[in-house]
Design goal:
The chain is an alpha/beta fold and 222 residues long. The chain is built from seven helices and nine strands; from the N terminus they run αααββαβαβαββαβββ. The protein has a domain at 58-211: Rossmann fold. Strands 5-4-3-6-7-8-9 form a seven-stranded mixed β-sheet. α2 runs antiparallel to α3 (32-39). The two termini are 26 Å apart. The structure holds S-adenosyl-L-homocysteine. S-adenosyl-L-homocysteine is lined by residues 67-70, 94-95, 97-98, 100-101, 115-118, 121, 143-145, 160-161, 214, 216-217.
């Protein structure tokens, strides 16, 4: 990819990106590092060219296979919540999708492990990470409801698709002192963004706000 592709022009220019960050600030995002990383990460390379002119709107956009790249506000909010108790070395993300959220995380922590069930999406996400020169995102094609066992336990887990109820394996792979942000609820119905923390006493659960995500589904497919 030539440099101007990443830098962007017109609807993908730095000015357009600055306006997005202004909106996120207005919506209550406070973590300066998160805002700065969003300001300096091209979102348009994570969507199809036909969608690139909308990449810096604060909305989810289609990425094919019935999936979406998350809304920038949600990306910022979930990242901010995950990092609120201190910056973890490693994050496990379930639902790579476009790869945008993992790219944001990769610029804030040492290593990102990310799992995606749709192989075609994972291939594209890897290509986008390669274009950006990101070397600390490790990805796997599988059903992320089972987590990523050999690398567990995690101090930080982010799930970017909504299950009806929290997969037990993910809670098991949460370290003491660890945090997991996850939308929970039915599709079409109400979903709530939740924060789970593991203490020496057990699991604590907090509801943060309403959310709208694609469903967390079983099994890996091509
Ligand atoms: N974080 C992504 C959001 C993509 S939408 C981004 O920044 O673009 C959520 C993604 O979760 C979809 O790509 C969907 O295929 C994936 N997904 C759904 N269920 C899954 C599962 N059980 N394991 C892994 N990925 C899953």
């Amino acid at each position: 990819m030539i440099n101007s592709d990443i830098q962007g022009i017109g609807m993908t220019s730095q000015r357009t990106r600055d306006r997005l960050v202004e909106r996120l600030r207005e919506k209550g995002i406070k973590n300066q590092r998160v805002l700065e990383v969003i300001r300096t990460t091209p979102r348009h390379i994570f969507v199809d060219e036909a969608m690139a002119h909308r990449a810096y709107e604060d909305t989810a956009l289609p990425i094919g296979h019935g999936q979406t790249i998350s809304q920038p506000y949600m990306v910022a909010r979930m990242t901010e919540v995950l990092l609120a108790a201190g910056v973890p070395d490693v994050v496990l993300e379930v639902g790579t999708g476009s790869g945008y959220q993992s790219a944001i995380l990769s610029r804030l922590v040492a290593k990102v492990y990310t799992v995606e069930r749709i192989s075609a999406l994972l291939q594209k996400a890897r290509e986008a990470h390669r274009k950006m020169g990101l070397l600390n995102v490790y990805s796997k094609h599988s059903d992320g409801s089972w987590g990523w066992e050999p690398k567990a336990p995690y101090l930080a887990i982010m799930v970017t698709a909504a299950p009806q109820s929290v997969p037990p394996s993910l809670l098991e792979q949460l370290a003491v002192g660890g945090r997991m942000v996850i939308p929970v609820g039915s599709i079409g119905g109400e979903q709530k963004l939740k924060l789970f923390t593991r203490t020496t006493e057990g699991i604590e659960e907090e509801t943060l706000e309403l959310a709208r995500f694609v469903p967390l589904l079983d099994g890996a497919i091509r």
